Amino acid sequence: MSGLNQLLMFRVSESRYALNLSAVERVVRAVEITRLPKAPDIVLGVVNVHGRIIPVVDGRTRFGLPEKKISLNDRFVIAHGAERSIAFVADDVMPVVEVPEERITRADEILPGIGYVDGVAEFEDSNVVVLTVEQILSFEESRQLDRAIEEMQTETGKDD
User: Fold this and answer.
1) Where is 9: in which H helix or E strand?
2) Is 3 in contact with 101 (CB distance < 8 Å)?
């Protein structure tokens, strides 16, 4: 008997993506983002969530989609990986779905080495890319982000 994967699906532009529900902390309305000089291009800035600094990732940049200003109707999907939490900007968030294991093709079976994709979930009407939080940022992007956050905290006197 195969297991079920619980996925939170969200839309960026006309594309649908998903995260394993176990990685999702919460979904919140978009709020003002504090710009973060010297952060990687994929990072729009940071938000403060209950005293935690969370980088906001621009999926449009990562996935080669058209740019769009963030609006109050957008959502932030806050998810955690092993080393950090991040917020994905989503145009819309759909209800959680359960997908049988056999309807998810793992990324290494499709295109080995595409780090931020965990797999592709097959639905009757389309396929949905399932992302992995741990690798949405490359190693170099993650290091660059760490340096930018450290510099921001040093400048503001909040050295944690």
Assistant:
1) strand 4-12
2) yes
Containing structural domain, residue 10: 4-156
Q: How far apart are CA 140 and CA 30, in angstroms?
A: 27
CA distance 19 to 59: 13
Q: What is the mean pLDDT of residues 29-38?
A: 92
**At 15, which CATH number?**
2.40.50.180
- Please name the amino acid found at residue 154: T
Cα dihedral sign for 78, 17, 149, 134? positive
Q: Do 96 and 6 meet the contact criterion of CB atoms below 8 Å apart?
A: yes
- What is the model's pTM? 0.86
How many domains, in total, are found in the chain? 1
pLDDT of residue 139: 85
Q: Could you give the CA distance from residue 158 to residue 154 in angstroms, rounded to a whole number?
A: 6
- DSSP states of 74-138: -EEEEEE-SS-EEEEEESEEEEEEEEEGGGEEEHHHHSTT-TTEEEEEE-SS-EEEEE-GGGSS-
